[in-house]
Amino acid sequence: MKRDDSFEGLLEYAMRLISRSEVTCSQLKRKLVARGASRRTSEKVCRELKESGYIDDRRYCELFISTHGEYGFKRMKVELLKRGIERDLVESMVAFDQEDEVGKALAMICHWGPDLEMEKAWGRLSRRGFSYPVIREALRRTCGEAS
Predict the structure, then answer these.
(1) What is the model's pTM?
(2) DSSP for residue 145
(3) Along the 147 residues of the chain, how does pLDDT read in single tens digits?
(4) Burial of 53 (0-12, 13-18, 19+ CB in 10 A)
């Protein structure tokens, strides 16, 4: 079957992509360009889908944040920026709250169990994007001593 690279064909391809999962405008543009669309055409397709409400970077952020509760503040920001979300939107959607971060870190430590070594807990939390002060405080509260 011959691929349709006209605007309508690319729009149909984009609709198939977004029917499978939520995507950012930037991700969709990259996929369209990889398929052979010009940057201008990929922007036109994205604009059309944004105006129709089919793609929405704010909605993507909300969904991502709600399904990645195991990520710390730093990793959440990095992951959203990697997906092409504009920095201003990321800054407005991902707010740092020290107590909330410590609470999330504590919950993860408790979930992993009491036999987990402090060094391993530190590494796991660090890879999930928790800051050193947050990790230190969570471990202090868990173990009764600062690390």
Answers:
(1) 0.84
(2) S
(3) 556 678 899 999 999 999 999 999 999 999 999 998 999 999 999 999 999 999 999 999 999 999 999 999 999 999 999 999 999 999 999 989 999 999 999 999 999 988 889 999 999 999 999 999 999 999 999 876 444
(4) exposed
In angstroms, the CA 144 to CA 139 distance is 7
Q: Which of 15, 8, 45, 17 is nearest to 29 (CA)?
A: 45
Distance CA 63, CA 79 (A): 13
DSSP string, 102-138: HHHHHHHHHHH-TTS-HHHHHHHHHHTT--HHHHHHH
DSSP 19-52: HHS---HHHHHHHHHHTT--HHHHHHHHHHHHHT
The sign of the dihedral angle between the CA atoms of 138, 141, 143, 145 is positive
